[in-house]
Amino acid sequence: MLTTHSIDTHFRDKESSVRKTYDAILKTTNKWGTVTEEAKKTSIHLVRKTAFAGIATRKSVLILTFKSPTDIQSKRIFKHERASTNRWHLEVKLDSPLAFDAEVKAWLKSSYEMS
Q: Fewest 10 Å CB contacts: which of 7, 19, 49, 110?
């Protein structure tokens, strides 16, 4: 049986700030160019040519995974995973649209440009 996933199902039973944070990310990334949303079972991928962001929703936070050519040392990044020689997957928790600030936008813009 083929199961389809929708963007809206990821926000069911979540605090409204989670959806507002996601909407703030979309508003910003759409200014950079074409962004496609792909709902997966456990996350939403934002895609340029390839996925540049993964978004997992939790009850009161959104977990943003993005690519980077180097590891980034920041207290805000709670997971650092080396994917290959020149690629890191990094994760940050965002609890409100205000947490999606200039620093996180710059990280995400770099990921977008890598895609």
A: 49
Q: Tell me how far apart the alpha carbons of residues 84 and 96 are, in angstroms, rounded to a whole number.
A: 31
Cα–Cα distance for residue pair 44/56, rounded to 1 Å: 7
Q: What is the DSSP letter of 85?
A: T
The phi and psi torsions of 68 (rounded to 5 degrees) equal -150, 145
Domains with residue ranges and CATH for the chain:
8-114 (3.90.1150)
Using left for φ > 0, alpha for ψ between -120 and 50, and beta otherwise, residue 13 falls in: left
pLDDT band at 2 (very low <50, low <70, confident <90, very high): low
pLDDT over threshold 70, residue 62: yes
Residue 81 β-bridge partners:
89
pTM for this model (two decimals)? 0.94
